[in-house]
# Entry
Amino acid sequence: MSRWRYVFFPLLFLVLSGVLFAANWLYASRFSGGYDFLPVWQSTRTFLFQGATPYGELAALNAQTQAYGRAARPLENPLRADQPLYLLFFYAPLAFISNFTLARAVFASLLQLALAGVILLSLRLSGWTPRRWGILAFLPFVLLNFPTLAALHSASPVLLLTLNLMAALWALSVRADEAAGLLLALTLTYAESALPAVVFLVFWSLAGERRRLAAGFGMTLLLLWSISQLLAPGWTWDFFRAAYKNWNFFAASSLFSVFERAFPTIGARLAWGVVLILLLMLALEWLLALRRDARWLFWTLSLTLAATPLLGMPVPAPQRLFLLLPAALLVASVMEQRWGTWGRWVALGVFSLMFVLLWLNAFFAPNAAHLWLSPLMLVLLYWVRWWATQPPRLWADQLAALETHDPH
# Structure
């Protein structure tokens, strides 16, 4: 068997990948969607085959015509690409596929592999090896919750963003700091969703004497930006203009807009109060995470991602909340490892309720889920903070000490 496994497992992977692609092709043929992938795919094609900027009106019009059959109306998503040019280059192989349905099916297959990678890396970073039935119990929440399915339906690059973050964290845990920096440079897909996490990891690197991460991050960015500048001088200004227009379109989902609609007189001040409290909280936790191990780093990164939707930046769509999946898995892992069977049932209860609420939210107010999900994840993360940031050996020592001093 040891001789044949080198043939069997690659063959099995190819077969499963083929089945996965066929399912995605069938789904993409029958159901419209993929509108997070469409702007970057169409903009890359516009740049490669029409020689126009991927951030201009022509690229946006091409995407709008593909989606709506016409130019977008004022209240419709303008479908502008707002990823840096060096990230658009990674879509070039798919841009050579002229059929959007086929390109979407291929990209969706990659995203599903990324989803599996996010789950495996999150479990690895949390040190959790659940029993087989425990995995089956949590799979519905992980795979079928609304943000995950919305991300897959829209073919959102947020799954790749999350995978890169988890992979960078894992690289740090094995002290491959330069590789972590390279992976971190590829996470700037959505600045409004990932920038605080990137700033935290770079700060942790510089202040904690792990400067090779910052060096790898900076060198990768400089190299990719220089290549992009050679191919398309002036793209940076076009990119910022497109990103600004997108931010204006999605501004209604920001904390400031929501509070100003709910409390016209004091809404802006209340929003600033929330933002300042969260920034102080993050500053304190970032300082406490310096020179700590991978478990502490994972918890602090999860806290940063949970707080980000409440920092005042737009939250364009519920699929961006997929970034909170690693935090949810960390909380569930601590509950199960710390409290055993009782903790497992508590975790199942908490996340089943969250699962139901997310789907109810999808029908009534899909773009407002972050207003309750982010605070809930912050509470859960602080609930398990001590156990999440301490090594398992310390858990055992503490429990042994409690048993030794038990008067009964």
Summary: Residues 41 and 244 are 20 Å apart (CA to CA). The chain has a mean pLDDT of 88.
